[in-house]
Specification:
With 161 residues, the protein is of the alpha/beta class. Helices cover 33% and strands 16% of the residues. α2 packs parallel to α4.
């Protein structure tokens, strides 16, 4: 019947209310007592308004908060990812985009949730980014690679994008 109205059977789970979907048994539960993470954001997705790294950071932060897992999350922007941490004019200059920085609200929302945002001083110097061109709340670190080493040595789990 669904095929008759043009719906693929693969879309049914996306359309059905969660209460109607069968529960999937969990074979490997993941009980966390602490979750310190660093998001190594070296690249940016094509300008679409949905950066994979920021989306996954929001999902993870929300799940950790919901499950009441103590956590610290740090996003580090560098390389091609540095423009994400910049104001509209600088974002346009660095990316060639005609639109304002589509990621600034996601970054602000993450900051509001307690996520620390940092940009690499080396990336800033290489790309001609000044401190006053950063989004509010973005801190400048002494080098992304050194900072990621420091955090992983402190036990942070790194997600690289």
């Amino acid at each position: 019947m669904l095929a008759a109205i043009g719906l693929s059977l693969s879309l049914v789970p996306l359309l059905a209310p969660r209460s109607l979907q069968p529960a999937i048994p969990i074979d490997i539960p993941v009980p966390l007592t602490k979750a310190d993470t660093v998001f190594n954001i070296l690249h940016r997705d094509p300008i679409s308004g949905r950066q994979t790294s920021l989306h996954l950071a929001r999902v993870l932060e929300g799940n950790l908060r919901k499950e009441q897992v103590p956590h610290t999350m740090i996003l580090i922007f560098h390389g091609d990812g540095a423009p994400l941490a910049c104001n509209d004019a600088t974002f346009r200059r660095l990316t060639g985009a005609k639109v304002a920085n589509p990621y600034k609200q996601s970054i602000a929302d993450l900051q509001k949730a307690g996520v620390q945002t940092e940009i690499c001083v080396v990336a800033m110097e290489a790309q001609g980014i000044s401190r006053n061109q950063l989004l509010p709340g973005v801190k400048v670190n002494g080098g992304a690679l050194l900072r990621i080493i420091e955090l992983t040595q402190k036990g942070y789990t790194q997600f690289a994008f």
